[in-house]
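We treat protein structure as text, and this decision shapes the records that our systems exchange. Because each token names a local backbone shape, the row as a whole describes the fold. For reference, a complete record is included directly beneath this paragraph.
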Amino acid sequence: MGTPLESRQEQAEAVVDRLHEEYPDSTISLNYSNRLELLVAVVLSAQCTDERVNEVTADLFESYRTPQDYAEASEEQLAEDIYGITFHNNKGGYLKGIGERIVDEHDGEVPDTMSALTDLPGVGRKTANVVLQHGHDIVEGIVVDTHVQRLSRRLGLTENERPEAIEQDLLEIVPESEWQQFTHLLIDHGRAVCGARSAACVGCVLADICPSEQGDSEIDLASGEAW
């Protein structure tokens, strides 16, 4: 079993430093060329892999270039155009609604505040944080996706389960200058080493400070269940 550092703040800083060395080029993996494409890609990525989203949006972004394009399309047509994306029928409706709201309420521009973004169909705090960070260079929170949720619990950075509560815990211990990068680092490590169903603890750069390390620990703190 790894031994966490004395405080959660020290633990978080060590995690960031080590993962920076392990993943020096860590960044967002969705493909986009403007704020609208970023917003659409992030909405589609909910419960869907980034790889699949990138495959679908390669054609989608050729056909839909403005909020008006999404607003004028039918939900059925949009659902067909994003077929293969998880919950494509629901997300087709979200895209149409997003297009309509941006046209009607934001002069055709993707809004730049948390409240305005989370008022859009299908946009929660996680999605809004991504759009603010990568579309507007506004960093006011930490994106808590499934990887961040899992690894933060495994590493002893939080005991909370809900993404909103986890984010608040992380904001108190992760250096503000690392709020954006923290998410990408944990996503990369979650994909490469610390998976949902199994973790490759042997050789993991965080094993010696991870309270869930399988060498001695019988419990995966992410789930609270036995390995």
Summary: The mean pLDDT is 96.
